[in-house]
Q: What sequence folds into this?
């Protein structure tokens, strides 16, 4: 489903829609001169390399003849600091995973967190919601350290920070109807009043993510992957959170559904005014949705700054390698990607050891880069 990868390796392309071939031809013919609206929609669904439209075009837009959105998204103007992470450390069975990680998230901001598998991105997210206990450092939410919260404060904290998981198939209880799994957090936290009030709230949540009210009576296996991810988003929204953690939440989706979910996330953010910590290995998606970007390497942040600074003026060698490795969905562009000749550093360290601690230095206003040897 990745057009960028297809453009890099394929000679001939076959486009399938509902089990039928709708277009076939050479890579250049299909990608430069697509004839079918379905193919045109697939190609347009990827986040554009240039420009940040308010809404990504979808396959359905092309099938319906809807003109693509051209209005650019507004630039983030800054807001109150809502979450602060300082010196976060985490090890598993003596093996160090996170090494003194620092970052902040502001109200209304989307912070993108990128890096290779094993760099510690998901471990950070799990520490934030209490699925893992850090070994050291401080996590502060609205000025209060979360390890010093009272039981009542922790309950409120659990409401305000919600998690959208990567896999829409395994993250939903298969034996619960959708309405029950959306109603459960409302009942546990005593929200939306009585049973009738909770049912009304469930209907509102389903409508917010573009699903019909009768979806509440169905089981998760009766939905497509994109629809299940919408249900996961609705469940995260049930408690009216202030910060949503999206952990590779569009990685399992094809480009057309991915565009729909990204549009939905942005629409909901504008509507409900919450913040995102958006974890992904897809740099095109991160560039599309994030205001600032933190680049992780071997359990540490090596570059942090505004989206434009990271993507247009990367300073750390690892950031440049990440960007150089991104395929481009254009058969006319075949980047010469030099192979790494040095030994690839393992993210796994012996107990009691770890990488050399890096210091971030401000290169430009708001753009911090780790000092390299």
A:
């Amino acid at each position: 489903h990745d057009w960028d990868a297809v453009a890099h390796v394929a000679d001939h392309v076959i486009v399938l829609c509902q089990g039928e071939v709708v277009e076939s031809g050479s890579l250049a013919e299909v990608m430069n001169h697509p004839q079918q609206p379905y193919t045109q929609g697939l190609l347009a669904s990827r986040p554009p390399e240039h420009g940040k439209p308010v809404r990504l075009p979808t396959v359905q837009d092309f099938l319906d003849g809807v003109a693509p959105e051209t209005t650019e998204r507004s630039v983030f103007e800054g807001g109150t600091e809502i979450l602060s992470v300082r010196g976060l450390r985490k090890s598993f069975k003596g093996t160090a995973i996170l090494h003194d990680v620092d970052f902040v998230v502001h109200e209304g901001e989307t912070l993108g967190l990128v890096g290779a598998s094993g760099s510690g991105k998901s471990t950070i997210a799990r520490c934030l919601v209490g699925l893992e206990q850090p070994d050291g450092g401080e996590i502060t939410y609205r000025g209060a350290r979360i390890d010093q919260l009272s039981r009542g404060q922790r309950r409120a904290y659990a409401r305000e920070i919600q998690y959208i998981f990567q896999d829409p198939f395994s993250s939903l209880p298969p034996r619960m109807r959708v309405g029950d799994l959306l109603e459960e957090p409302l009942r546990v936290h005593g929200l939306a009043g009585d049973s009738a009030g909770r049912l009304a709230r469930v209907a509102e949540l389903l409508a917010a993510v573009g699903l019909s009210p009768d979806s509440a009576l169905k089981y998760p296996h009766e939905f497509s992957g994109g629809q299940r991810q919408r249900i996961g988003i609705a469940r995260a929204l049930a408690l009216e959170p202030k910060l949503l953690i999206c952990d590779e939440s569009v990685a399992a989706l094809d480009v057309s559904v991915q565009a729909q979910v990204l549009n939905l996330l942005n629409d909901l953010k504008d509507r409900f005014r919450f913040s995102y910590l958006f974890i992904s290995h897809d740099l095109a998606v991160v560039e599309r949705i994030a205001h600032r970007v933190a680049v992780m390497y071997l359990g540490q942040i090596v570059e942090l700054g505004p989206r434009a600074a990271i993507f247009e003026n990367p300073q750390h060698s690892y950031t440049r390698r990440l960007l150089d490795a991104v395929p481009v969905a254009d058969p006319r562009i075949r980047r010469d990607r030099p192979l790494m000749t040095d030994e690839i550093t393992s993210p796994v360290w012996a107990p009691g050891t770890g990488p050399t601690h890096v210091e971030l230095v401000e290169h430009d206003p708001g753009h911090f880069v780790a000092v390299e040897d």
Remarks:
- The CA atoms of residues 181 and 238 lie 10 Å apart.
- The radius of gyration is 22 Å.
- The chain is about 35% helix and 25% strand.
